[in-house]
């Protein structure tokens, strides 16, 4: 049963570090490290230093700390606490993190991919009514377990909660989406075409594909990788709530996002792209603008009830906000949650089907 008591009893990750009374080190650099340091300041946790795996430490500095090798810290301190500050789905790296967690107190503070707002236990409990409603909307026991475990992970930073609810795309495509040979697919956040190719792996065929990608470099790769396919329309635009110019920051890999800074790019709503036409499956992975992109598809969703796959992890409370948004547009949807293998919980997905 989904109860408030379960979450009230959980110890937040920062309390676990404070109670340990051992030196605390951050594992990893980059934006995640900066966000973790900010959280340390908020909760009065002293950072003793930053480390990387032995093969990645280069005697460089980051955020005022010399980046040390893990083996040197182990030799000097023997026992310490670790706050991990990067994301990975690479099996050998995940295995290394798991091994560290078995030797030391290790937490993954839930820093969001996008935005400065960080998930907190108190803020979550203030919205427990929303979580309770979502729990009641979920269509199977697996989804409820994923929902409970991801919320528990976000509070505690304990990767045991993640390990206990991982599944793989095969299961979602085979048992939930069940793509046919007659799909009209809108890929919002098409990147380099990888998710179109994933769709083609599971769909027996298709009528048309709409690939929408704002980053110019990724868009060129997407066109190049899919150019031999028939009936694909490409849009070098950001998926958004309406058609207008927006600011866009181009990061490395998938880290391109809408921003108050950056270059001006054109944004399109899916309703505008389709112009009243049909769509049978929509994928949203638009780096923090997922809610806006869904609102920009509301007409299509209301009219055609397409199958939906959307990310739930870009912003701190997407896991609450996005299921409620989809339910408000089309209450008839059955909702499923799945967590793909990733530390931290950066591959949480919601599937909606009629």
What would your notes on this structure say?
By secondary structure, this protein is α/β, with parallel strands linked by helices. 40% of the residues lie in helices and 21% in strands. The protein has 16 helices and 17 strands. The strands form three sheets. Strands 9-8-7-14-15-17-16 form a seven-stranded mixed sheet, sandwiched between helices. A six-stranded mixed sheet has the order 3-4-2-1-5-6, sandwiched between helices. Strands 10-13-11-12 form a four-stranded mixed sheet. Helix 11 links the parallel strand 7 (183-188) and strand 8 (206-212). The longest helix has 16 residues, at 141-156. The radius of gyration is 21 Å and the shape is globular.
Cα-based radius of gyration, to the nearest Å: 21 Å
**Judging from the principal axes of the Cα atoms, what is the shape?**
globular
Oligomeric state as shown: single chain
Distance between the termini: 25 Å
